[in-house]
Write a structure and sequence with these properties.
By secondary structure, the chain is mainly β. The protein has one domain. Helices cover about 5% and strands about 45% of the residues. It is built from two helices and 17 strands. The strands form two sheets. It has a 15-stranded antiparallel sheet that branches. The radius of gyration is 23 Å and the shape is globular. About 30% of the residues are buried. The model has no long low-confidence stretch (mean pLDDT about 95).
Length: about 300
């Protein structure tokens, strides 16, 4: 019976991903003495596995996004649930039925990127517990039947107005305390959020697009500065909507809405007669009622 290489987050079904990485940090504890020229003793320290998952965006991968969001992607970003916040195990196997598994895998961030001449792509970072060699095998290949999105059918609007851009990136990051070790064992004792979830990204403008850059640069206040109590120090950008449609343009795969985006910085660079490269970087306010959501 044929077996297939790939990644599974439930032990039975392979996901359509492009790549997976894994590393384990053993964080050795070293004894240094006055009489030894080097480290006289080495012992195992804290244990943490980590890695990445990446692929072309398909709705199949929403099962991973949901672990980051804490709930269904159509409900948007939320709190971590009391149970089920991470995958019990992930399995990575080669075509000969060998590979590894990692226990208690928590998704800590997602990067969605769309640029000209390419597909919409997504990558995830994760941390986990015990990693071990494994002989899990999969007799059914992952399915690639769900549509992908390509650049020519991806549109970006800001406040419902189409924007001419060459690329867009979105990053959602949930910080997890990676120092939650206790006396008595070497693994993280639990996964606890250790800061605010951040939603941020960038938009690379087309060579002739200057008005959007001007909006990003302007504070709407006079310069040189005037001492007054009516300064706006404007950072408003607005609601970003990313529409991902399948290659023939007959249906929309996902619409990603990010409200209340604020400008964090803007750049413009040029060398010789090359095109002007202009980028707007942004961050989004996130509350229970205003948050990134997939629909």
């Amino acid at each position: 019976m044929a077996t297939y290489r790939g990644l599974s987050v439930n032990g039975t079904t392979l996901l359509p991903v492009s790549g997976v990485s894994m590393s384990v940090a053993r964080n050795l504890i070293a004894e240094e003495t006055m009489s030894a020229v080097g480290e006289s003793k080495l012992f195992g320290g804290t244990y943490l596995s980590s890695g990445t998952i990446d692929g072309i965006y398909r709705t199949d991968l929403d099962v991973i996004v949901e672990k980051l969001f804490g709930q269904a992607v159509t409900s948007g970003l939320g709190e971590l649930p009391a149970s089920g916040a991470w995958f019990n195990n992930i399995y990575v196997s080669d075509e000969f039925g060998h590979g590894y598994k990692v226990a208690s895998v928590m998704i800590t961030s997602m990067d969605l990127n769309v640029q000209t001449k390419d597909f919409a792509k997504v990558s995830f970072n994760w941390i986990g517990g015990d990693a071990s060699a494994d002989t899990h095998s999969f007799s059914v290949a992952p399915t690639y039947s769900n549509s992908v999105s390509v650049f020519y059918n991806t549109t970006i609007t800001v406040n419902s107005v189409a924007i001419k851009c060459m690329n867009i990136s979105v990053r959602v990051e949930r910080p997890i305390d990676q120092d939650y070790y206790i006396l008595g064992h070497e693994y993280l004792d639990d996964y606890v959020q250790s800061g605010a979830v951040t939603v941020s990204g960038s938009i690379g403008l087309g060579p002739k697009e200057w008005s959007d850059l001007q909006n990003a640069l302007s504070t709407d206040d006079p310069f040189p500065g005037v001492v007054q109590s009516s300064n706006a120090n404007d950072i408003e950008f607005g609601e970003i909507e990313i529409l991902l449609a399948e290659p023939t343009g007959t249906s929309v795969i996902r619409t990603i809405t990010i409200p209340n985006c604020k400008i964090s910085d803007a750049t413009a660079n040029v060398t010789g007669r090359n095109k002007f490269e202009k980028t707007i970087n942004w961050r989004a306010e996130t509350t229970a009622s205003s948050k990134i959501i997939f629909s």
